[in-house]
Amino acid sequence: MAGRFEGKTVIITGAAGGIGLAAVTRFASEGASIVAVDLKRSPLDEALAAAKAAGGESIAVDADVSNESDVQRYVAEAVSRFGGVDVLFNNAGIEGAVIPLEEYPLDMFQQVMAVNVNGVFLGMKHAVPALRARGGGAIVNTSSVAGMTGNASISAYVASKHAVVGLTRSGAQAYAGEGIRVNAVCPSPIDTRMMRALEEGLNEDNPAAIKEQMEGIIPAGRYGTPGEVASFVAYLASDEAKFINGGIFPIDGGMTSA
Description:
By secondary structure, the chain is of the alpha/beta class.
């Protein structure tokens, strides 16, 4: 629905990646001003171009979401440039190593938790005052189907995405009375660079076999697309979803329905 985000500012972390880039396009096409955040500045050029092509204003902010001062800076830039914050899409994340739990290096585990958990926590922490100043708004966190189940090969990623679910539910309870809603999306395998890396980690010699195996356990028989995730994120962030709060939503082609 065109125009749902006219006059609103949306921060999107992980904006240079598949789901983040699709979200930039979706929100910009519906009138939002975009603050596109990613670790490095140069990959964000595509996000800025996508926002412009969709008809939206945008700025790019290179930031490490696990660094509190960087998070404070991207929120401050959103307020300075566009006058406030209405939506935070906490989407930045890394998959970590694909190895058994007992072999997982502590420093790598901590890195995954820093980006996937601390990044979400800090985004919520510093966006809430800006959302409050606007009279409310929405936060959508990216968890994963891995945040609803377990997986022997990606224990750090699984742990981090379960933590995102906990933060989402806690934030939803804490701020509902102020008109700030917090929900999470849990995508199944989505056709992105992250999935390519995971496929290669599980079977370096034949990653296509992993894709075929994964598609075989999804009732829909295929990976989802970044655009399909972005469409639902936009709905959760919109005023149409005003009574939806604390929800944990699989976007998985029926993968978790069994």
